Amino acid sequence: MIAALRRHPLPIALAAVVFVLLSPFQAQAAWQSASSVSTSVGTATLAPVPSASAVAGLNNCGLGTQGTVTVSWTITPAAFATGYQITPVRNGTPQTPITVSGRSTLTAQVPVDRALLGTLPYTFMVRAGFANWTSTAVTTNSASCGLLIGGL
């Protein structure tokens, strides 16, 4: 029988081609991927303090070239605020700010310089803070420690 197959290779090859073409085997490939992506983006405004004031006097100013001014403010309406930034301003020039921790902290003793022959008036910019955000500034009234002889 093998010898007979060797003599007729064309019908065998033809039969193999017909078998492959009519065969119910099919190669299929499919790829499915299901994913759900959700991104939540929120916005918020860090509300400023409603009001702020500054007070200096004999008790705060003491003797010497350095005094303190008591700066106070009302609590920010922003519930997520974590503190405040107080910037002294002398002659229109902002000085080094101080940071006050805690949303419920409502006063700070801010160091100020004094002059020998006169006063150095200060105003203070108070900003609510959260992380690296700050609110718009609320500016206090002017306050000064007066002459070196104790706030006179």
Task: Please provide a written account of the structure.
This protein is α+β, with helices and mostly antiparallel strands and 152 residues long. It has a domain of 88 residues: Immunoglobulin-like. It contains three helices and nine strands, in the order ααβαββββββββ. The strands form two sheets. Strands 3, 4, 5, 7, 8 and 9 form a six-stranded antiparallel sheet that branches. The protein has a three-stranded antiparallel sheet with strand order 1-2-6, with no helix packed on it. A hairpin with a 2-residue loop joins strand 7 and strand 8. The protein starts with a helix and ends in a 13-residue tail after the last strand.
What tags apply to this protein structure?
152 residues; alpha+beta; six-stranded antiparallel beta sheet; rod-shaped
Outline of the structure:
This protein is 16% helix and 30% strand. It has 152 residues and is an alpha+beta fold.
User: How many runs of DSSP E, i.e. beta strands?
Assistant: 9
- Low-confidence sequence ranges: none
- Structural class based on helices, strands and sheet pairing: alpha+beta
Main sheet specs: 6 strands, antiparallel
Protein name: Fibronectin type-III domain-containing protein
InterPro entries: FN3_sf (IPR036116)
Keywords: Signal
Map the helices and strands.
Blueprint: H1 2-7, H2 9-22, E1 52-55, H3 58-61, E2 66-73, E3 83-90, E4 93-94, E5 98-101, E6 107-113, E7 122-130, E8 133-134, E9 138-139
Antiparallel strand pairs: 1-2, 2-6, 3-4, 3-5, 3-7, 7-8, 7-9
Keywords: Signal
InterPro entries: FN3_sf
Organism: Kineosporia succinea
